[in-house]
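Quick one before lunch.
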Amino acid sequence: MIAHVSLEIALRKEFDYSIPPELLGRVDIGSRVQVPFGARKILGVVTAVAEESAHANLKPIIKVIGAQTLVTAKVLKLARWIGEYYCCAPETALKSVLPEAVRKEDASWRERLFVRVLPVIGEFPKLPKRQQAVWNLIEERRQILLSELVELAETTAATIRKLEDRGLVSITNEVSERDPYANETILASQPIMLNPAQLIALEKIKAAMARHEDGGLKVKDGPAKPSSTLPPPSSTFLLHGVTGSGKTEIYLQAIAHTLEQGKGAIVLVPEISLTPQTVERFKARFSSGKLQTLVAVLHSHLSAGERHDEWHKIRQGRARIVIGARSAIFAPVEPLGLVIVDEEHESTYKQEESPRYHARDVAVMRGQMEKAVVVLGSATPSMESYYNCKKGKFTLLELPERVDDQKMPHVRVVDMRQAAYKEKGPPIFSPQLKEAIMQRLERKEQTILFLNRRGYSTSLQCPKCGHVCECPNCSISLTYHRPEQKLSCHICGHNERVPNVCPNEKCQNPAIRFSGTGTQKVEDILGKLFPHARIKRMDADVMKKKDDYRRVLGEFRHGKIDILIGTQMIAKGLHFPNVTLVGIIYADMALHQPDFRAGERTFQLLTQVAGRAGRGDIEGEVFVQAFTPFHPAIQYARRHDFVGFYEQEMEFREQLKYPPVSRVAMLTMKGRNEDKVKFSAEHLKRELEKLKTATAGADHRNHFTDLIISGPSPAPLLRAENFYRYQIMLRTRAMSRLSQSLAQAVATLLLPDEVTLAVDIDPVNLS
Ligand code: ADP
Ligand code: ZN
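Model of the adenosine-5'-diphosphate complex:
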């Protein structure tokens, strides 16, 4: 027997190895193995097993890692698709489906030594004083960790071993699972009676699951009908429900149904909303009491050991529900019945390094491959997903109202141009917002203030010569951080002292000025305006430790904070009934960025942030401060009108053939020498043009008649971390075919040594 093995060092090639007799039966598709490669020993994954190989003199596999195959055949198939579609080496795709904590050769369960009391046979022996004292402690507890006992009894392991020799205790090595939620007491929750809109949605999801079941049976019982007579049911749902409309309750009940069918579920949430609050809701329904291990959690805040154990609980089938960020889509849940992607529009689902996959799109693909129902949920769906509903690819489910007839918050747009005119320069707080904050303080209600920019001031400029302090490594201005008195680059992390005079040698004007506002300044000014208010700031500068986030939110929930200021960290998922006011300081900040999704992002962000207000009995109020108050993204958000926004935005996307009308591939050339980068990008463009005409010529295979090639042009952020970047943007409807051609073109492309090319299919970040 031989095995095809994909090696971890990316070679875009698989190699054959023989399976030595002692490993027969232990090597299967998905096994992780160690193999010889030249003089080295390398790890890899078995992708196929066969009787014989086309090659002679195969070297044998050295060893198999782990007792079970780590990559299931289904996940392997998914990884293959990722390699092809996202134009990356299959090894890179394979690597990403296993968490580092599981992949490492020495990753394993934590074993610890337990001491247990054995039944005394015959007469109890007379023990030396020290041993007797230790025995008394053990007897009381019946079982205890050896390390704990050593400490408690102030003794040594040797003394305890003497008790073992006498047959009084056993000392055994046992697995002790690391449970990241071991110290939490979670109260069980019961299903809530659904309202009519929720019921309809849930019934449709259940019906789709039943259809999958039937489909499965037909294949088993006899020949399947020719596929042309069976309209393909759309396996994917888009659940569009305003914030607080009860989406999560639908997820919970759909999961319960999935479990009844003997299947498991994956729930993806953006990393940022993997708050204890979210995890608790799932654990409370499924994982209290006896069912401790039913819910597994995978995210970056777990220790490597915890991640290892959570993953293996899933692989062993003890955990049936997985909640996690992006990469949890690869969790080895089998059989898989349901995948939920909450906040499906979130850009964090896209991985920004190779493999550059989008977890939502991978979820839809995995659902198709494994006949699992996929539910994408959002209050502000992505243009892509809503478009897919219009095209009949997805089924739309709608929850237009909040549960319990709570009203949507009242949104007021404040024209900051007027405020700026009156106050000689843009103020941070309009008089209206100041007044509203004052009222909340008097009524002992809470306020959230949102500004998506940390630091104190966003730039330092000389009013005399115009010099702006820029990062030496990136084409971006430095942000002023007041507590540390430093200028800091938000791209590469470069820090420097604040200069006393203009750094321009010829100028040296001492009156350099800060401009632009960050969260630190908001906090500062607010403290001066309302000296008695209890104010806290939440952004990446203050939230450094794992528990900071949870602690501050806890204080806020218990009413110990009046005003919470924050960046996108506080935009989502938070549910605080006493928050009746939300202020968005500069609503149009993200609107004028060179990205075709700028409007969509602004609409989503405003809607999400506004959704934090009025989650209790008192109606919420939202102030949106903007310099372009009549922009559609702001006006439609004010009216909570997603469909209106979608329709006007589609006109623009249609005109310029931007997604969802087409798909985009972004090719970025990167290097330290700008001329070489530019030259290489132009060379690539010529190659791509050839590809277009070549395929158009070969009659039946004119795949790319709709291909638009734009650029090369300097990236919006031309220089980052000392690398210059030039981009070519491709737009086509036939992306899967284009990625294949791209992979070939890229493989044969000759580039200067210091220039690299990154291919990003369906990019989310264009900078
Ligand atoms: P979403 O996920 O859409 O923001 P949630 O599922 O979190 O909404 O629901 C908001 C709140 O309403 C939660 O506290 C939830 O328990 C409650 N809720 C959900 N469905 C119902 C219902 N049918 N009746 C009463 N309360 C409900
Ligand atoms: Zn920098």
